[in-house]
Design goal:
This protein is an all-alpha fold. It is built from 3 helices and no strands. The longest helix is centred in the middle third of the chain and has 28 residues, at 28-55. The relative contact order is 0.19.
Length: 89
């Protein structure tokens, strides 16, 4: 359940980034740039989530690594698709 909530939070954060891209540039190009800027920020958030899992929840890095990959990949793929679609228009 925690993974689904974290990935959902990632998609919501992507929406916030894209909306700020619209506010700053009012174009598809600015929104695509914002979606691309989301990815490194989301990587930091996913790494922070892994760090909390290892230091506070008692999981090992080996146990948390696949979760990190999934938690990062799902919103990052959505961001890539959004950036691709917005850059085409």
């Amino acid at each position: 359940m925690h993974m689904a909530m974290t990935m959902g939070a990632g998609v919501l954060l992507l929406v916030v980034f894209v909306l700020f891209g619209w506010l700053w540039g009012a174009s598809g190009t600015a929104m695509a740039l914002a979606a691309k800027a989301f990815m490194p920020v989301w990587l930091l958030v996913a790494l922070l989530n892994m760090w909390v899992g290892v230091t506070h929840a008692g999981y090992t890095v080996r146990e948390e690594l696949p979760i990190l990959l999934i938690v990062f990949a799902v919103p990052a793929v959505v961001a890539g698709l959004v950036a691709w679609q917005l850059s085409r228009s």
